[in-house]
């Protein structure tokens, strides 16, 4: 009972902060994108357009809810609900600092990977329920991409588990405080694992160059084509939350979490800086690169990412066995 | 070893309950947003059939939507199961690696080698090539 209460209280705090951060993350993305394209970006609502997320929320709340003819109404409603729930619930195990963690499970990494994997189901639900060909194709592509890039994602997280010998996210951070950040130490493989993890993260959150599932020029808007109002909003927010939490997890696993560089002033603020930097870099990439073709996407994953990440696991095991002991 | 497992097991029950609480809260957030939309959303006074038609770039939808798919998606799914099951074996192995001897290292090496043989076979059969 005491645990449930703690979960609700910490959940309330962390989720509120996370959602607010995500809302202004969207603002940040639009401002960055505008800068990169010599535009101004949102600047009307509030100072520097800072109230834009609030205005967007108000607008989405008022939009009419439309069910397309032949849609599966139950699944159509359930999909945005589940996308958002899964995206937020992933944050439960993320240690933002030594204390600020919703539930410090000893299999935290498994929780993250499981919920990330579950995201496939509501995405396919949305594609199937819409009774729209674009949505269906988008959903199918999203599933194929997510499960494919799920493999390097799992394997590169496994590298961290092999090095640290624990699956608790705060345990991984503590190991890094003791031995050095995994992205920097041991030199070489850690960086490669981090880069692979980052690429898989881009693919999992359907960001350019891996945004085949919602390629506007081919599929209108992919699974979100038929969604209106807040249901579209939830799918959209779910994706951003997914990216935000993913950045936080990448920061925890490979960049030392709340540990400052050279242990200087360790604390929550370092976690925030790292997460926001990774989040912004995802959008930097998004607005700089082109989109892969479907077959290139699959080839990159199965021909290069999977064997390389397996090789990294082997290397990590050897290192653990012969160097670290 | 057994002792530490038992003590950590006791506190882990509370931690799992906390995780459940966290999930409940995220469900409440999502449900609230959907519920609020139900309250505030406008409703058109004269809904027509045109409004509810699936949007396919303004064209009238032709034929069934839920069609059959190319089998290459099935191959991807098979591959995913293969590698994910492997990962499911690798995680517990990784956790206790430092306590096991060289034998664990060698055995898992053989396991991975067999898997990569299958991967090479698929590569040769061009099962991973999408065209």
Description:
The complex is a heterodimer of chains A (325) and B (131). Chain A is built from twelve helices and no strands. Chain A is mostly helical and 325 residues long. Chain A has one domain (2-324). In chain A, α3 runs parallel beside α10, α5 packs antiparallel against α6 and α6 (133-164) runs antiparallel to α8 (189-204). The relative contact order of chain A is 0.14. The mean pLDDT of chain A is 84. With 131 residues, chain B is an all-alpha fold. Chain B has one domain: Up-down Bundle (Methane Monooxygenase Hydroxylase, Chain G, domain 1). At the A-B interface, α1, α2, α3, α6 and α10 of A face α1, α2, α3 and α4 of B.
SSE layout:
The complex is a heterodimer of chains A (325) and B (131).
Chain A: H1 2-36, H2 52-62, H3 73-89, H4 108-118, H5 120-129, H6 133-164, H7 169-179, H8 189-204, H9 216-219, H10 229-254, H11 268-288, H12 294-324
Chain B: H1 2-40, H2 49-52, H3 72-95, H4 102-124
Helix pairs in contact in B: 3-4
Name of the CATH architecture of chain B: Up-down Bundle
In terms of quaternary structure, the protein is heterodimer
Helix-residue proportion of chain B: 55-70%
CATH homology group of chain B: NADH:ubiquinone/plastoquinone oxidoreductase, chain 3
The ordered H/E elements of chain A are HHHHHHHHHHHH
What's the β-strand tally of chain B?
0
Give me some keywords for this one.
heterodimer; A: 325 residues; mainly alpha; B: 131 residues; Methane Monooxygenase Hydroxylase, Chain G, domain 1; 4 helices; flat; disordered N terminus
Summarize the structure.
The complex is a heterodimer of chains A (325) and B (131). Chain A has 325 residues and is mostly helical.
